[in-house]
From TrEMBL:
Domain of life assignment: Bacteria
Domain Nitroreductase: 9-177
Coiled-coil region list: none
Pfam families linked: Nitroreductase
Main location: cytoplasm
Annotated protein name in UniProt: Nitroreductase
Organism: Bifidobacterium callitrichos
Length: 200
């Protein structure tokens, strides 16, 4: 089995995280930068964007999530479960925010109108590839992570807090850190039920 497949197998949704890290913050930032540059995109358009948060910036993100959801969840008992989940993400070492620069897609739609309807889908494909690649790269370095989607509720506040371009549309949030308690095994459908092979 190739190293790539083994690295994919390491990637799991890990929810119980600590604020520790086996590598430095600079190494994590450099890793995300390298992966972002290398992940492909349709027409080499490169619409993927990422923001890496550590320390107080990371805590501020999850404070925003908590404050935003508190306005939506009025029931105190229901909010306790929501708050516990958010606190678990905040307990990690950091968070990667994934964005799509919509200006890139709009420009492509203007330049190549025959494909205009396809470009938003191509951008989502590029975003998904980047998320998987970063997730797998973090796992390879001994960091657990999960993929969260509190957007679009938090978009405006996060953009304002970190001074991000208005054209960047938030796609997902990936809290990461050393795994405190590994996730339980999950059932997976057999490969033969999901992959059809012809001509072999």
């Amino acid at each position: 089995m190739s190293n790539f497949v083994e690295e994919l197998e390491k990637r799991r949704s890990q929810y119980a995280l600590t604020d520790a890290s086996p590598i430095s913050d600079q190494e994590i930032a450099d890793l995300v930068k390298k992966v972002t540059v290398e992940v492909p995109s349709a027409f080499n358009s490169q619409p993927q964007r990422a923001v890496v948060l550590f320390g107080d910036a990371n805590q501020k993100l999850w404070d925003i999530v908590k404050e935003t959801l508190r306005k939506v969840v009025n029931d105190d008992e229901q909010f306790k479960a929501t708050e516990a989940k958010i606190n678990a993400f905040a307990a990690g070492h950091g968070t990667v925010l994934f964005y799509d620069d919509e200006d890139v897609t709009k420009q492509l739609q203007e330049n190549i109108p025959a494909y205009a309807a396809n470009f938003p889908g191509f951008a989502r494909d590029a975003a998904g590839m980047l998320q998987l690649a970063v997730w797998t790269a973090l796992a390879d370095k001994g960091l657990g992570a999960s993929l969260q989607h509190y957007n679009p509720l938090i978009d405006e506040a996060v953009t304002a807090e970190f001074g991000l371009p208005e054209s960047w549309k938030l796609q997902a949030q990936m809290p990461f850190g050393v795994v405190a308690q590994p996730a339980a095994p999950v059932d997976k459908q057999p490969a033969d039920a999901r992959v059809k092979v012809f001509g072999l």
